Amino acid sequence: MDDLNLPPITISAIDYDRLSRIASAGVHNQRYTVAEMLADELNRAMIAAPGAIRPDVVTMHSEVEYQDEVTGQTRRITLVYPGEEDSNAGRFSVLMAVGTALIGLSGGQSMEWQGPTGGRRKITLRRVHFQPERMASLGARIRNGNMPQGLSQQRKRRRRVKSENKILDTRESRNHRPAEAKAVVVPAWAPQPNPLTREEIRKLVIDQIG
């Protein structure tokens, strides 16, 4: 891939350690394999601490959207380790050519490589929908009381709306108290129902049975 225009990529230190072992174990053929492609990508990557990875960078277990520049097809997949893949669920292994091409890319970057039959492949990363490092960073900031401004404002709005709804419910309950039940007095002259005799009950049962 030396003659191709390769974009700069960034990989977290944790991903780098695991991927290096995977690439080393997979390099066993003399021809250019995906494992060798992964090894080349790791060699040229900039390594960063997980907390320093930008949210638009593809890391392991990221959910991303990319476009195949050859076919024009757009796909949304999750990048996983070997053994975790499931094509029906959109889980692509990093040892697939597309997976190796995606690792470390940032939003808007394109990656081009040569396929096993000699044809050129090219994909463009459209968006990173989910990134584990970003979620871990947000969780740590929230636990430390340093909530991002957007989330803080959303939480304040939810609390304010909840409080306003509670006040409205209280006012409505006061204004719409159910009327007190009034006792119904049956006049003494009103006809009273006569209890059925045993014979009448027996006839009713026989009629119901048929």
Folded structure, characterized:
With 210 residues, this protein is α/β, with parallel strands linked by helices. It has a domain at 10-138: Transcription elongation factor, GreA/GreB, C-terminal domain (Chitinase A, domain 3, Roll), CATH 3.10.50.30. Helix content is 39%, strand content 18%. The chain is built from 6 helices and 7 strands. Strands 5-4-3-7-6 form a 5-stranded mixed sheet. It has a two-stranded parallel sheet with strand order 1-2. The chain is elongated.
Give the SSE layout.
Layout lengths: L9 E3 H14 L7 H11 L1 E3 L14 E6 L5 E7 L10 E3 L3 H6 L7 E5 L5 E11 L1 H12 L5 H27 L22 H12 L1
Helix pairs in contact: 1-2
- Tell me the fraction of residues in β-strands, as a range: 15-25%
What is the level 1 CATH name of the domain at 10-138?
Alpha Beta
Give helix and strand order, one letter per element, not per position.
Answer: EHHEEEEHEEHHH
Strands, total number: 7
CATH-derived topology of the domain at 10-138: Chitinase A, domain 3
Low-confidence stretches: none
Give me the CATH superfamily of the domain at 10-138: Transcription elongation factor, GreA/GreB, C-terminal domain
Shape: elongated
